[in-house]
Amino acid sequence: MGLYLLCFILFLVGLYGVIAKKNLVKIIIGLGIMSYAVNLFFILIGYRHDAVYPILEKGRHAARMVDPLPQALILTSIVVELAVTALLVALAVRIYEKYKTFDITKIRRLKG
Amino acid sequence: MIIPCFVVVPLAASFCIILFARKSNNGAMTLSVLAGTALFFMSLLSFVLVAENGGPLSYATGGWKIPWTIGFVLDYLSSFILISINTVAVAALWYSIRYITRYTDAWKYYALFMLMLGGMNGFTVTGDIFNLFVFMEISLLAAYALVAFGCEAEELEAAFKYTVMGSISSTLVLLAIGLIYASTSTLNMAHIAQNLPLVHKPLLLFVYGLLFVGFGFKAALVPFHAWLPDAHPAAPAPISAMLSGVLIKTLGVYALIRFFYHVVPAPENVLNIFSVLGAASILIGVFMAKLQFDIKRLLAFHSVSQIGYIILGLGLGTPLGLLGAVFHLLNHGLFKSLLFLNAGSIEYGLGTRDLREMGGLNREMKSTAVSSMIASLSISGIPPFNGFFSKLILILAAVQAKQPIYALAAAAGSVLTLASFLKVQRYAFYGEPAASRKSEKIPFSMNLAMLFLAGLCILSVVLMIPGIKEQVLDKVVDNILNRQDYLEIIAGG
Predict the structure, then answer these.
(1) Cα(B187)–Cα(B15) distance, rounded to whole angstroms?
(2) Cα–Cα distances in Å, from B401 out to A60, B260, B312, B396?
(3) What's B196's DSSP letter?
(4) Over the range A52-87, which residues count as b (16 or more CB within 10 Å of their CB) and which as e?
(5) Contact B274, B310 (CB under 8 A)
(6) ipTM for the complex shown
(7) How many CB atoms lie within 10 A of CB B459?
(8) CA distance B492 to chain A (A)
(9) With b meaning 16 or more CB within 10 Å and e meaning fewer, what string describes B288-321?
(10) A83 touches chain B (CB under 8 A)
């Protein structure tokens, strides 16, 4: 339970970074922390105490195994996050070229 | 099998464009227009196939049995949404043929467009909760990039805002998926629904909250709508039409229906939150829209308002309310995408989006003026057009459910919408031309796309004729309300 709580706190740290920080790069890092927390949460779901890795080899009996499915899901979600982060960084670079700043309080041509 | 083709065709088109039609704008255009037209007819065919089968069709990937593999499901609801998506997509693609020549690297635009279409179609047909997340991210990634396609300062700013908001809500959805998997040990949506009694009650409330906020962001419900009025106007016009017309409904409204009516059925008090936020969206969206002079921004605020009607219908939860909601979903897809295409041709012809710099356009842009008049009357709910019927049903449903306040909010929203579109008509199409404006001729393919949608705005009224209504709309409503059918057929393989 304590581990899940720590994982949730990590999620909130990321959310704080996205909401409270003024710098585009720090916002991107905040989003990264949020996704790491969720990935960690998935790994915790699959974890079993005193279990073995989920591969059936010659001479090994089927024993208590770690759930392999969340690990497979996380590989997919990491790829998705990589793509989103790459896009965000590319946008941040182009925004810097146009506005000459990373400060979101100065990037305000849209309003309403 | 037709079901996997909805995903395979657009994704294959997108990859073929990137692999073979690199730097060839005409090749990319031909390929994607062909794929879009094929998808349009396939989506119509899919509804007939479901009706012939008399219930949901399913497809298991990789030859495994369904609860252990990713299953695709085609029922009346997903088929209806597919028709809505692919109709708007085909019009947007025809429109793009000439419109997008204003931008450089049109082949990238078509590749992203097909990727977004593939993501949305996959999102609609999938029966696996994690697969749903992946398709959602595919379509959103393409949408983020398309919003920034023009690479002007405002567009980049809007795209950054959209990407950050979209990622937060996707992360919340992923967290909800993790919690659901942890407590039901399955990812198949029908299987989850069967195992639901095992779930701890407080945990289920947390899951409701996460799913509601996550998909509420995608649907741009009122407390979560801040990204929409920036992101939708910034995109090229056909993409605005796709985003406002179908993306918010597929990723937001369809997901809310699927989750809160089938997978994790919502109790009464959760549905009440739907109604309250729906009514708030109607009023706040339309008030904000009245203040705008940028035509695309005005239309984007109207999207917030119109989504409110659909969510209000879902929240009422009665058969009549759902009938109004699904009919309004189709209608809003048609007239809002048409209005965005109109705004795009005004921008194409005049080079401005400010209403105060237009005027007298009904003499120069006949097709635009006519189709925009039809769309404006439809969105404001004037009798012979489709918007009138769906709004009338929603208001009647609210009265029938003994919720006169919601009926009043819906009626007031409709009157204010009319006022706001009278302003658009007066500034843009009537009156004297602004002093310093010049205009260009609108190409034939753009007019064709607009008149096609305008025709559909009038034609979709036939769905209300008794006899046809029972065959189409009532089937979709039954599909939403009969949770048991969905569970049995999919879990049975």
Answers:
(1) 28
(2) 63, 19, 12, 9
(3) G
(4) eeeeeeeeeeeeeeebebbbebbeebeebbeebbeb
(5) no
(6) 0.94
(7) 11
(8) 22
(9) bbeebebbbbbbbbbbbbbbbbbbbbbbbbeebb
(10) yes
CA distances from B467 to B434, B460, B482 (A): 50, 14, 21
* Contacts B171 to A, Cβ<8 Å: 31, 34-35, 38
Tokens of B287: 């008030």
Query: DSSP label at A68?
Result: S
**Across the A/B interface, how many CB contacts are shorter than 8 Å?**
84
pLDDT digits (tens, 9 = 90+) for B316-348: 989 999 999 999 999 999 999 999 999 999 988
Residues of chain A positioned with their CB less than 8 A from the CB of B178 = 38, 41-42, 45, 70
Pick from A11, A98, A112: CB nearest B153: A98
pLDDT tens profile B348-357: 888 888 888 8
pTM of the model: 0.94
- Asked whether the beta carbons of residue B157 and residue A110 sit closer than 8 angstroms, the reply is yes
Which residue of chain A comes nearest to B146, CA vs CA?
A: A87
> Which pLDDT value is given to residue B45?
94
Considering only CB atoms, A80 lies closest to which of B137, B163, B288, namely B137
